[in-house]
Amino acid sequence: MRYYPVFLDLANQPCIVLGEGKFAVEKAAALREAGAHVKVIPSRDYRHGALTGARLVVDASEDAE
Predict the structure, then answer these.
(1) Distance from CA of residue 48 to its chain's centroid?
(2) For the chain, what is the radius of gyration of the CA atoms?
(3) CA 38 to CA 15: how far, in whole Å?
């Protein structure tokens, strides 16, 4: 697998972390440090359309599916 760096200016941008638990908390904290407006949505609460308008969505679910 190959990796590539991504640098985004997320200051004042809406971002969503989808998931719960330690991984989601860490991702949300990192986004907030970058100045993003973060909304965390537990996987079980996800509904169609919930990601609309987000500049970045991070899947932090611990479920492999």
Answers:
(1) 16
(2) 12
(3) 5
Nearest 5°: phi and psi at 29?
-65, -45
Cα(8)–Cα(33) distance, rounded to whole angstroms? Answer: 13
pLDDT tens over the chain, length 65 residues: 688 888 999 999 999 999 999 999 999 999 999 999 999 999 999 999 999 999 999 999 876 55
Contact (CB, 8 A) for 25 and 61: no
DSSP E strand stretches across 1-65: 14-18, 37-41, 56-59
